[in-house]
Amino acid sequence: xxxxxxxxxxxxxxxxxxxxxxxxxxxxxxxxxxxxxxxxxxxxxxxxxxxxxxxxxxxxxxxxxxxxxxxxxxxxxxxxxxxxxxxxxxxxxxxxxxxxxxxxxxxxxxxxxxxxxxxxxxxxxxxxxxxxxxxxxxxxxxxxxxxxxxxxxxxxxxxxxxxxxxxxxxxxxxxxxxxxxxxxxxxxxxxxxxxxxxxxxxxxx
Length: 205
Prior knowledge:
This protein is of the alpha+beta class. The chain is built from three helices and ten strands; from the N terminus they run E-E-E-E-H-E-E-H-H-E-E-E-E. Strand 5 and strand 6 form a beta hairpin. The protein is globular, with a radius of gyration of 16 Å.
């Protein structure tokens, strides 16, 4: 388990699994795309008040853009800033449109048995530190490449990141940040090879 609210070592987010950690106001969390082609679904909840959480709908409305950029704040469902995208060594391609995958999603993609998914990873990751979110909000899908056209069409494309690319998210208020190394292995969002991998994170001062 990651150190709770303390800056520390680089922590593993296992392939196809989820993790969560406390991040105090003023601290930051660095999310590392270790092998370069892994989408990391990312959530943030207000510490001690989990019904307030980072909301992609409210963030898009506030920023008036589909992809946050360095310096942009990310907002909760109560329209308060919860994180700031402080640094981004990647090409800056992330997604705010797609809901977290769930077992039902994989059923629509042809799976007939249970499939690892980001929704369950959120609950498992937060459960490991004694918490249960009230719902699974739409995540900030770090490193996910969802191009769109002027006609409104969307596609699921491979990431454009490289090994070691990272983002740094600075906490504006005490929060719990959760991650899932997306288990998607049918669509090419984790690379054309369809092999989800691990990622890492680090709480930093």
